[in-house]
Amino acid sequence: MAFAPIAVDDVKATDFIGISEPQDIDFGDGELLECLRAGEEKCFETLVRNVGPQVLATAKRYLRSDAEAADCFQDTFLAVFQGIDRFEQRSSLRTWVRRITINQCLMRIRKQVRRKEESIEHLLPAFDEKGHRIENGGISQPSTISESLDSERLRSIVREKIGELPDDYRLVLLLRDIDGYTTSETAAILRIKSNAVKTRLHRARTALKSLLTPVLEQRECHANV
């Protein structure tokens, strides 16, 4: 079956509101895979309908514009349809599609003209000459960011602040903390060493907390008024 480009205008994110785990298909069922490999158009449509929200949301997390995410949506399903015969079922179909989505995102990022990345040193802990940590104006940070995530608005702010991190740190944070890949898996995806992943992740988490602290403190202040 010839692949027809999927218009994001036809498969909108708003179409997926209220859809979590679709009931019309079991992604562990080999019957679906056989149907896809047979080139059944209805099965491809069902696949897009079921994993489309995940693909679009993932693309928007990794890429910096909706236009790029829309193009990545197209490229992901093209890669899925062209590679379905090579799917070895070592993971669920949904997990396989997510990995393809991330790979498509990273390919786009690598092709872009490398932006001059800003230093995050000002967001990291400072120490005095005796090696004691200098607190930033007495601001205390939450032990985990999730402790303060009590609203969709705040979750939106966290996504925004993650987007402010340089790509080297942003991508590690997304892969490890959002998408749940292990250190070794993240290293393989980014083509760097595991020690580099650990270092970048620590610095990314620290920088993110520093970016969030003023917002969290302001929120707490308003709540106490």
Can you tell me about this structure?
The protein has about 220 residues and is mostly helical. It has two domains: about 15-110, RNA polymerase sigma factor, region 2, helix turn helix motif (Rna Polymerase Sigma Factor, Chain: A), CATH 1.10.1740.10; about 120-225, Arc Repressor Mutant, subunit A (Orthogonal Bundle). About 60% of the residues lie in helices and about 0% in strands. A hairpin with a 5-residue loop joins strand 1 and strand 2 (about 135). The longest helix is centred in the last third of the chain and has 31 residues, at about 195-225. Residues about 1-30, about 125-135 and about 135-150 have low confidence and may be disordered.
